[in-house]
Amino acid sequence: MSARLSLRAAGVDRDGVPVLRDVRADVEPGEWVAVIGPNGAGKSTLLKAVAGLLPHMGEITVAGRPVRGLSARESARTIAYTAQNPVVPDRMPVHEYVLLGRTPHLGYLARPGRRDRAIASEVIDRLDLGRFADRDVGRLSGGERQRVVLARALAQQAPVLLLDEPTTALDLGHQQQVLELVDTLRITDGLTVLTTLHDLGVAAQYADRLLMLVGGRAVSSGPPADVLTPDTIAEHYQASVTVDRGPDGRPRVHPIRPRHGNGRDGIE
Ligand SMILES: Nc1ncnc2c1ncn2[C@@H]1O[C@H](COP(=O)(O)OP(=O)(O)OP(=O)(O)O)[C@@H](O)[C@H]1O
């Protein structure tokens, strides 16, 4: 199953304050869109609204069906979501926790079967978690836990993957491993991938398109090379960068020190 994701005039209020407004976006099956933007821009809010965890205005549909009409079970079979700061049960072995990802596929009161265990084992292996399989989730490092949470989401085998900052706690090698795995699944299984990513370099390398939010509104969207310009980044992040192209033609963003011109630090 593949599923197109579509947002039309999507908006969210939190405590009566508008934090997302009038967002229009589409993510096609097999496409990876990264939501970028400064702190507090509404990136996590957007993902939570798509995951059905926050009430929204406008229309958000998955495979043509409004997400607000999906039951919890239907939603979990269609959308796998990982939070920026996931809450995990401390005293549960990794293999059991990952197996929870199979719950939406089980019949009423049914227990996971051989196939469910095989799927959970496979994602545990692919995320290099085999040696932690019997350890409690609460006794893992931050990066190990982040991979376990992703493993549970992948075990769900949902056609839509929503990942809120999936690599923040990961070392460089595991970052690449996770991002490459998601990219492979996007290509081989046609997953529809929507992530938030703070690291603009990573976003540029992996996403087909970027959606930049500022103050809850989409201010720019399109291929990474169109969105990631020094002027746009200076305007919306108040950051100084240069941008060039890598061998793959994708933009590479290099932070540079702003020019202070006050003479105190020797920089003109
Ligand atoms: N539970 C909440 N109640 C009220 N306001 C909230 C709540 N959670 C977030 N907000 C506000 O909503 C706005 C958007 O927050 P959100 O977490 O979506 O931003 P973000 O772009 O993901 O930020 P960051 O890059 O810092 O993770 C912010 O102004 C934030 O303060």
UniProtKB/TrEMBL annotation:
Residue runs in coiled coils: none
Alphabetical keyword list: ATP-binding, Nucleotide-binding, Translocase, Transport
SUPFAM superfamilies: P-loop containing nucleoside triphosphate hydrolases
Domain ABC transporter as annotated: residue spans: 5-240
A Pfam short name: ABC_tran
Region Disordered, residue ranges: 242-268
Membrane-traversing stretches: none
Highest taxon listed in the record's lineage: Bacteria
Biased segments, Basic residues type: 252-261
One MF annotation (Gene Ontology) recorded for this entry: ATP binding
Protein name: ABC transporter
Taxonomic lineage of the native organism: Bacteria, Bacillati, Actinomycetota, Actinomycetes, Kitasatosporales
